[in-house]
Amino acid sequence: MTLRVLAAMSGGVDSAVAAARAAEAGHEVTGVHLALSSNPQSYRTGARGCCTLEDARDARRAADVIGIPFYVWDMAERFDRDVVQDFVAEYAAGRTPNPCLRCNEKIKFQALLDKALALGFDAVCTGHHARLADGELRRSVDLGKDQSYVLAVCTREQLAHAMFPLGDTTKAEVRREAERRGLAVADKPDSHDICFIADGDTQGFLADRLGAEKGRIVDASGEVLGEHDGAYAYTIGQRKGLRLGRPAPDGRPRYVLDISPVTNTVTVGPREALDVHEIHGERPVWLGEPLTAPYDCKVQLRAHGEVYDCSAVPVGDVLRISLHAPARGVAKGQAAVLYDGDRVLGSATIAATFSASTVQAGA
């Protein structure tokens, strides 16, 4: 069946090959590049596969080679509100957000898809490395490039109008195919940094928007060990850059254990104090039938992070995830994505974490 397909073209090799495959499959494909900044020079520069002026030009050239119509859509205001401002607000609240996850949720599979459907398109095609099989979201065959984690915030209704042509292909194969197709982006490097932080200085970016606010760095007993200029500059599990006045009595390194925006306090302690045995997630999104009883599965707690055996069950509006072995450095604000094999069951935003002692105490 021929579909009207809107291909989101970032300017990178993945989205270019995905669009080419959709066109080759006989679909009526139109390419679109999303302009995400009203002042592109305020974002990073250079062709990096997403979000720059050079990337827009690369996307247009790829569309010309493929032979499909191409447009640039201005989504700067929506991106600033739903991704950039959300990023700042989450850090201010003591959480560690994933802006790429939020961009997929709010921009590519909400704003873009809504507009595409309103214009009569049947599906949105992207270069994500993930698979859709019988309506289910599954991991890519290239586990090193798998992006099912950042897509797990999408709803079943959104995925019903999604197309991921690269899920059965490794990244090396994508590059070779791009070269065969004459796409100039075949050797273009992947994008790894945050597109709206031009110099990569996240701490400086946050300081400009949140301002300096001195606070205390304490240990678990409350003893003051140092001072900081803003709790937002720290993340759970951080070891370097703590600027402590003195070493631990046993000489072992300290790590960030907790961030309290209310008291503007950062708590540090030994590495083993980072162990998390239970996670509570909020705003669960189910890609299959919602769980109604404890279910043994696996959970991934950050993009390209380790996967843990667990038991998960909804309790009211909270998804409770009990880990079979402890995880370390679990940050509130990240997504907890549940898997059954390579199939995504659902996701939730990490709202609270508990050690073995607090779990046993009935937390």
From TrEMBL:
Q: Which residues form the active site?
A: C103, C195
Domain tRNA-specific 2-thiouridylase MnmA-like C-terminal: residue ranges: 277-350
- SUPFAM superfamilies cross-referenced by the UniProt entry: Adenine nucleotide alpha hydrolases-like
Catalytic reaction annotation: S-sulfanyl-L-cysteinyl-[protein] + uridine(34) in tRNA + AH2 + ATP = 2-thiouridine(34) in tRNA + L-cysteinyl-[protein] + A + AMP + diphosphate + H(+)
**Residues that bind ATP, according to the entry?**
A8, M9, S10, G11, G12, V13, D14, S15, L34, G127
- Region: Interaction with tRNA; residue ranges are 145-147
- Any Pfam family from its record, for instance, is tRNA_Me_trans_M
Q: Which residues form the tRNA-specific 2-thiouridylase MnmA-like central domain?
A: 204-269
Query: In chain numbering, where does the site feature Interaction with tRNA fall?
Result: H128, Q334
- Record EC number: 2.8.1.13
**Compartments it resides in:** Cytoplasm
Identify the main location.
Answer: cytoplasm
Name of the top EC class for this enzyme: transferase
Q: Which PANTHER family match?
A: MITOCHONDRIAL TRNA-SPECIFIC 2-THIOURIDYLASE 1, TRNA 5-METHYLAMINOMETHYL-2-THIOURIDYLATE -METHYLTRANSFERASE
Supply the NCBIfam families for this chain: PRK00143.1, trmU
Name of this protein: tRNA-specific 2-thiouridylase MnmA
Q: Which source organism?
A: Actinoallomurus liliacearum
The gene coding this protein: mnmA
